[in-house]
Amino acid sequence: MRRSYMAGNWKMNNTRSEALALVKELLDNGSFKNKVLIAPSYTALDAVSKAVEGTELILGAQNMSTDESGAHTGEISPVMLKDLGVEVVILGHSERRAIYGETDKIINIKVHLALKHKLDVIFCVGETLDEREGGLAEKIVTDQVVEGLKGISEDQLSAITIAYEPVWAIGTGKTATPEDADDIHKVIRTKIENIFSKNAADNVIIQYGGSVKPANVKELMAKPNIDGALVGGAALKAETFIPIMEYNK
Ligand code: PGA
Prior knowledge:
Distance between the termini: 11 Å
CATH class: Alpha Beta
Structural class: alpha/beta
Radius of gyration: 17 Å
Helix content: 40-55%
Largest sheet: 8 strands, parallel, barrel
Bound molecules: 2-phosphoglycolic acid
Number of helices: 12
Order of helices and strands: EHEHEHEHHEHHHEHHEHEH
Low-confidence stretches: none
Shape: globular
Strand order of the largest sheet: 1-2-3-4-5-6-7-8
């Protein structure tokens, strides 16, 4: 049985004090039957790390460098994230791919480096609107899975969650229909079976992301291949994130 996994990606939002206020609301008013993660921006990680210590709220980062240390102005290394108590890193988010030019190759390097430093990974894949309308969604997502996970062993896969986020559904209010999302999740699960094993495919957690909100979480989570959510906008307020993180499959 796969345990539901709900993750809030705060993106470039929340100062330290805003972050702490939101964490307090989640801890005071939320419950943690599901696995629940929040990924604040780098500048709030230290403060939030202290606030979530000893609680069930898992601390994630939104990105990290391809390198451990050295001449990489503006970058953050996995060593630094570990030092702050970060347990998970989101890699390959479509905003990193589209706005900052991250390729499958770069993302694959980051996946390997994160695992080397014992960071779990939420590995994001998803097609653009043009790709979907061109009938390419399955191919794009499959290629991203194959390239992003190149060289990963079945053992290492247990530290990786896959997030399917159709780019056209992120922050747009448009959600993939639960059927369309589940179809792609199934394609991903089948690919995982081909690359690794049936056991790996049965156990891998695949989140859906793209305008998940309290009003649609139930129908999405009802689908057999959808194991959780990666949530942007609705993760910025306790009143919208708590019903999502508490959703009981
Ligand atoms: P959204 O973002 O929920 O605001 O669509 C999801 C994401 O980008 O992870």
